[in-house]
Amino acid sequence: MSELNTTIVNTSLNDNSAKSLSEATTVLNVLSNARINLKDKVIDHEFIVGNKIEIFNSGEADLYECIRQNEHDSNNNGFILKVYHRQNGIKTQVIEILKNLHSDYLPQIVTSGFVENRPFVIMPRYKTGSLRDFLNSGKTFNIIQIKQLVKHLNESLKVIHDNNIIHKDVKPDNIILNDDLTPRLIDFGISSLKSHDEKIVYTNTGLTPTYLAPETVYNCFSIYSDYYALGITIYETFWW
Predict the structure, then answer these.
(1) Per residue in 194-221, pLDDT tens?
(2) In angstroms, rounded to a whole number, what is the distance separating the alpha carbons of residues 223 and 13?
(3) Less Cβ crowding at N or C end of the chain, within 10 Å?
(4) Phi (first) and psi of residue 217, to 5 degrees
């Protein structure tokens, strides 16, 4: 996958962060060497960590397979443990908001906290994978399915925007498909919270170059930046 489709994380969260794609990529390479291995660890006295999921685009976190100790668990697909590389890898306020949003088009966060001094979230795992995986497999949507995809993703953005969250990283990699191809918008690692009256948030916490709205080059993000990225995502889905 091209670096232009990869989320570039500003590890310091201030104006002294990496100023270019190459500098940011170097930062991520350093981070990758410091990653931890959690296999067989028990999280929250309930979840057993399995194998690490090796993915190319993993700049901000490590993913692990995860199962619940309760053998009668009805979730046959298991769970995903996402462990962020940075202690401030995701805003706790965002996690708490997401936990209380009961939407079919947003992540279902089962539990969250810290492990080895790093924040984590546990979510159900979906066999279909991401929209990116679906497209890379050579599969396509028909026009009715694309209309439903647009409708559901638009609803996901409306819900988070109504709760003052700007996602900032909408792209096929961050959209998980259920078995019936219903999408869920995930990965809020570089999202921002705004006050109720704010229209624009100034931040340089992260970006994915291919999906950037023009104003975000100047670190200006708004709800419309998310819709711009969604437009590129839908275009990509239609013409892939």
Answers:
(1) 988 888 888 876 678 899 999 998 899 9
(2) 20
(3) N
(4) -60, -25
The distance from CA 196 to its chain's CA centroid, rounded to whole angstroms, is 23
Q: Which residue has the tokens 């397979």?
A: 65
Residue 73, number of CB atoms within 10 A of its CB: 12
Nearest CA among 40, 46, 56, 45 for reference residue 2: 56
CB 230 within 8 A of CB 157: yes
CA distance 158 to 148: 15
Q: How many angstroms separate the CA atoms of 159 and 101, rounded?
A: 8
Place of tokens 């996690």: 95
* Partners of 126 in the β-ladder: none
Which tokens go with 232? 């590129």
* Rounded CA separation 136/165 (Å): 29
What is this structure's pTM? 0.80
Contacts of 193 (CB under 8 A, 6+ apart): 91, 93, 94, 164, 165, 166
